[in-house]
Design a protein that fits this description.
The chain contains 33 helices and 13 strands. The chain has 714 residues and is an alpha/beta fold. A seven-stranded parallel sheet has the order 3-4-2-5-6-1-7, sandwiched between helices. It has a six-stranded parallel sheet with strand order 8-13-12-9-11-10, with helices on both faces. The relative contact order is 0.10. Residues 13-40 form a coiled coil.
């Protein structure tokens, strides 16, 4: 062995030790940051659990003991809640008439079991209007991790891999770093050392990039903590990131067991759970239910992701794309409405390391050529898809707002069908697989699995609805907000009934006599200066202005929005309509979001209710009832979604003794049909992992039942 090779090995080992030291430092700083969050979280979870136990009747102790505990004496002595029993001393309880040692022990053991279940499963709700020191401490601790950005999980995994491998390889390679010492070892040890040196060299192939990734994360973790005010501002801007991190670190999960009961073939459950999810190219952490959604799409290959709006369907799709491109896929295509094309490009670039290409507008030819040559994810519109030839190497097709292709006779549906037949992995995304009738749902399923529903007949009975949901289980997964995003603030619906003014009534009668349906729908705004609905809208906006809240006003009609704009004494953005260029539309939303304090955004409900994120708004006003309930629910979900930090108030303006009442009846009937066939999926109902359910004990069930009781309107 010559001196030059030994010097090269020593140099290699020196670089490896420095990288190992950097990796260990990053891991240690990350663990300290996580420990700070958990330490700040504990008193808040304890406070919230205590409040829940204080609202839980003592009778629940009897349920925990399967009816064996006699609680009459406790109730007579004034112990009305689980908390009161939990906080009592054994002496206090045992001296009560009729309470012996056995009863006292059973009561307190049951209370302790419920307390543990409550503390373990409670989800923290951060109230932006109650900035107490304990919550501020938590947000300051969280800021340290959130501020590192989406590369933190990758940096942590890289550091762990480096540390594990170099801890093992450096001692093995050490004999070759000293020529004389190397002569003392046998040929087998020297061969093992040579192999270790080769493996270290392989690990250091991308040394500069690896060191930069780890160093940047370490630097960010070492930044001084912000003051409390800045931490609160950052939370309001990036609430979804904070809550995602909290869910990950506190290991809490939605736990409504009723949402997990149902039928599912065991082999399908096993296949989804066994599906690996490669996160090499992904730059965002997934919640448990989101990871399950991505696994479902990968395991089944041709599916509809029907999650309720605001649950991160886009992120789940990107997780699938990232997995496939980390493996064998080189080209993928996303099809979406023009209104959300820019949002898709932004999300792909922000949430993954994939290249994204805009196949729309003047740049389309160049982008198309670059996509074909370099690979990545192309994003196009429904109108542009029919002119796009299938690509032999395309591995995945994502269709956003897939209900746009519910009519198989349309040009866009035929183009999607052509691509669906060509591509192996197809993901349809829609929170509204049916808007008017069941055949729309069947049409979407036929794109993916022709003939799957051939033997299933829809109908009005509960049994038929269950049979339908059971049949579509292999291709349809839906989760609802209440099951998986438990930190969302309250959503309050208020119907605002306003009598016609004289001018409104005259306009309505004229529209009825002429038989003009659309004119009847907006007759209440025909004379803006005398409109009763508009006057109520002004009052609602005024109250929001006094509270510093942002408002989004939805109407189906442009002329209604044109009347609203001048009528309110507020900064007005928009209106957003179907004719607004996607780029300009996003600029309007960004300006509304960035505005300080109160502002009003005007939007046509069929345009603004699709694909836009409006968490900045906490007041939603709907100027008239819609023909489709999905239009209203989509619009509301633009504001009441992950990232919302305030209670969302929804005001629907209605007029009695008018067609508004009939429209409400129609909407309720359509909503009931949707609930029967599409609101729940058998996969989500029967697989706890689909909605992050992990606990099934009796105490946990009681906690869930009580939470539901206390949050269900009476």
């Amino acid at each position: 062995m010559g001196s030059q090779p030994a010097r090269e090995v020593r140099d290699l080992l020196g670089r490896a030790r420095r990288l190992l030291s950097d990796a260990r430092e990053m891991i240690a700083e990350h663990e300290r940051a996580v420990a700070d969050v958990r330490a700040a979280l504990e008193p808040l979870r304890g406070r919230q659990a205590r409040a829940e136990l204080g609202a839980m009747p003592v009778s629940r102790l009897k349920d925990v003991t399967s009816g064996r505990l006699r609680i009459g004496a406790l109730q007579e002595a004034g112990y009305g809640t689980v908390l009161s029993v939990l906080e009592a001393t054994p002496y206090e309880l045992q001296k009560l008439p009729g309470v012996g040692q056995q009863t006292r022990w059973q009561a307190q053991t049951a209370a302790e079991g419920i307390a543990r279940a409550t503390r373990k499963s409670c989800t923290l709700h951060i109230d932006v209007d109650n900035r107490d020191p304990e919550t501020t401490r938590l947000l300051v601790a969280l800021h340290r991790l959130v501020a590192v950005g989406p590369d933190l999980p990758r940096a942590r995994r890289t550091a762990e891999t480096v540390a594990r491998r170099l801890d093992e390889l450096i001692p093995q390679a050490r004999p070759l770093g000293n020529r004389l010492r190397g002569l003392l070892y046998g040929s087998r040890r020297r061969a093992r050392a040579a192999q270790a040196v080769a493996q270290i060299a392989g690990l250091l192939t991308d040394e500069t990039e690896t060191r930069l990734l780890i160093a940047q994360a370490t630097t960010d973790l070492l930044r001084p903590p912000p003051d409390g005010a800045l931490a609160w501002i950052d939370f309001e801007i990036r609430a979804a990131d904070h809550y995602n991190l909290l869910a990950e670190l506190s290991a809490t999960a939605p736990s409504d067991r009723a949402a997990a009961e149902g039928f599912l073939p065991g082999e399908l459950t096993a296949r989804v759970k066994a599906q690996e999810l490669d996160d090499t190219l992904r730059r965002v952490s997934l919640r448990g239910y989101q990871a399950f959604g991505a696994q479902f799409a990968l395991a089944q290959r041709r599916v509809i992701l029907g999650d309720e709006m605001g649950l991160g369907k886009t992120i789940q799709a990107i997780a699938v794309l990232a997995h496939l491109h980390a493996r064998e896929t080189t080209h993928s295509l996303v099809v979406c409405p023009a209104s959300v094309l820019i949002n898709w490009l932004r999300e792909i670039e922000a949430r993954s390391s994939l290249r994204a290409y805009r196949l729309h507008g003047d740049e389309r030819p160049l982008a198309h050529a670059a996509w074909l040559e370099r690979g990545g994810v192309a994003v196009t519109t429904f109108d542009g898809l029919h002119t796009l030839d299938t690509v032999p190497q395309a591995g995945m097709l994502v269709v956003d707002e897939a209900h746009y292709v519910k009519n198989p006779r349309t040009r866009r549906a035929k183009a999607v069908a052509r691509w669906s037949r060509h591509v192996g992995t197809v993901l349809f995304m829609t929170g509204t697989p049916m808007e008017n009738h069941i055949e729309e749902f069947r049409s979407l399923v036929d794109h993916l699995q022709p003939g799957l529903l051939g033997q299933v007949e829809p109908g009005g009975t509960t049994d038929r609805a269950q049979a339908f949901r059971r049949a579509v289980a292999p291709v349809y997964l839906r989760r609802n907000q209440k099951d998986v995003v438990t930190e969302l603030p309250e959503l309050v619906h208020m119907d605002e009934w306003e009598e016609f003014s004289a001018a409104d009534a005259a306009a309505y009668r004229e529209a009825v006599e002429s038989g003009r349906f659309m004119t009847m729908r907006r007759a209440a705004y025909a004379v803006p200066e005398q409109s009763a609905k508009l006057e109520r809208l002004r009052e609602l906006v005024g109250k929001a202005a006094d509270a510093g809240l942002k408002v989004v006003v939805f109407s189906y009609f442009r002329d209604v929005l044109a009347a609203v704009g001048p009528a309110v004494d507020s900064p007005v953005h928009g209106p957003i309509g179907g004719d607004l260029d996607p780029g300009r539309r996003q600029q309007v939303v960004d300006a509304f979001t960035a505005a300080r304090g109160h502002a009003v955004l005007l939007a046509q409900i069929q345009a603004g209710g699709t694909g836009l994120n409006l968490q900045a708004a906490s007041v939603v006003i709907i100027c008239e009832p819609q023909v489709k309930p999905t239009l209203e629910s989509q619009a509301v979900a633009r504001a009441h979604r992950m990232g919302q930090v305030r209670r969302v108030q929804v005001h629907r303006l209605l007029t009695p003794d008018s067609m508004d009442e009939r429209l409400l009846e129609i909407m309720h009937a359509k909503a009931a049909l949707f609930d029967a066939y599409a609101r729940r999926s058998h996969l989500a109902e029967s697989t706890p992992a689909a909605i992050d359910i992990s606990d099934e004990s009796l105490a946990d069930r009681i906690v869930r039942e009580e939470r539901q009781r206390l949050t269900t309107p009476h």
